[in-house]
Backbone:
């Protein structure tokens, strides 16, 4: 299985990147790639810029990475109950090239935040909208209170029940 993972965040200290990186270690994959959305930064999407720039190479590359994988894992940063600008921007550019951004790939969707809702709002949006972009949601997981439930130094979940829940969620890929 070729596994592609990324955090829908452009923070250099992204807690979602830490979570999704940990999740990749729980899956037996032949190859794993972890993307950084900072490598896919494009001008703020507008139809005018779209006319000027056409189909940017970075947006094509983003779609090509998704095309490469057998399974896609995303962990979403929640900004004001919704997507981070970094994710929405590359997604918008990519969707103008191929509206089926997720290309029928199985998805594991996650979110975490320092708060007690664990990014549940953005996660629910991602789950409900994925089929419109030809994403096949296989499982979802939210980790609340990140700094209480994740050991940043060890890079793993410390809350036993949440750890087990994530392992069970990932079983859907087997
Ligand atoms: C503009 C902004 C809006 C935010 N809104 C929310 C929110 O709605 N819900 C939440 O739980 N956390 C919110 N946060 C806190 C983020 O969850 C926190 O910054 C987290 O580290 C983001 O994930 P990341 O580290 O993977 O980028 C917000 C942070 C920023 C900068």
Residues:
């Amino acid at each position: 299985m070729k596994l592609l993972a990324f955090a829908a965040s452009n923070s250099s200290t992204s807690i979602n990147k830490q979570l999704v990186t940990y999740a990749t270690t729980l899956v037996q994959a032949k190859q794993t790639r972890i993307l950084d959305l900072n490598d896919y930064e494009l001008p703020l999407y507008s139809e005018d810029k779209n006319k000027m720039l056409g189909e940017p190479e970075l947006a094509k590359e983003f779609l090509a990475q998704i095309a490469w994988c057998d399974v896609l894992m995303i962990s979403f940063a929640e900004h004001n109950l919704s997507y981070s600008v970094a994710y929405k921007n590359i997604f918008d550019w990519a969707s103008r090239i191929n509206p089926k951004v997720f290309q029928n790939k199985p998805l594991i969707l996650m979110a975490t935040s320092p708060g007690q809702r664990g990014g549940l709002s953005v996660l629910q949006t991602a789950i409900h909208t994925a089929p419109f972009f030809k994403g096949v949601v296989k499982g979802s997981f939210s980790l609340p209170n990140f700094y209480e439930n994740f050991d940043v130094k060890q890079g793993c979940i410390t809350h036993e029940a949440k750890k087990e829940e994530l392992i069970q969620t990932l079983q859907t890929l087997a």
